[in-house]
Amino acid sequence: MRRLLLAALLLAGGASAADADDLSAALRQARSVAARGQVEVTVLFPPRGVPTRRANALPAVPFRPALLARNFTVSRAGTEPVAGRQSTRFELTPKVGQAARWTLWIDQAWNIPLAFEERMPDGSLARRAAFLKVNAQPTRVQVRVPAIPEGLRAAVLAAFPGLRLPPGFVPEGVRVRANGRLDVSLTDGVNVLALVLAARDVAAAPGVASRRVGGRFVWLVGNLPGAALTQVLANVRAVNPTALGTFLPTADSGR
């Protein structure tokens, strides 16, 4: 019986790895080829006045296949049509932590996404984008996802002593705005959080936590439960942006 159980577990693990490899190949393909047509995009988190709009392409999501495979269990969940094209459905479930869950629909002929869905940890819909109509042929694109700089994680932890990164998340980039605000982007391969150092506090809202440190404020913004966001910042006892060293870019004009 134990041997049968072990064999079943090994087969399941092998299937999950194969599914992750297949999805990773599709996401890499999407960096050079993309579908165009008519897309319906619905965003419920963060809330907005008009949650649904139309577009001619799927909204950009900075997928990082290697991190995704490390942090999510990927499982093939059958085939479904999207805009009349047969697609494979992949479910992405976080292995640890409380990050959002994702579903992606991959065109079986073109091997690129035709739809995606992001759900909160409680299962409620955060956003969904899906083609309603697809042009006869995909188009060539150039999507660049910069490599995560070596040493950035250590620098961020030095700049925010006491920071507890959410399970699976790593810093991927730093941005300095013209008003002096410092933004650090965190990713788990799919979901993105913003760690912000600012002179002013941020208004309370779902998906936002803040903490006063000295004369400044540290925010964390993203699709995690409020308690999880607060826990990340709970032990931050100082801020030292100079610890970011060469990772600090020149201030830009973004607001």
Automatic annotation (TrEMBL):
Record keywords: Signal
Keyword Signal included in the entry's annotation: yes
Protein name as annotated: Sigma E regulatory protein MucB/RseB
Top-rank lineage group of the source organism: Bacteria
Signal peptide residues on this chain, from the entry's feature table: 1-20
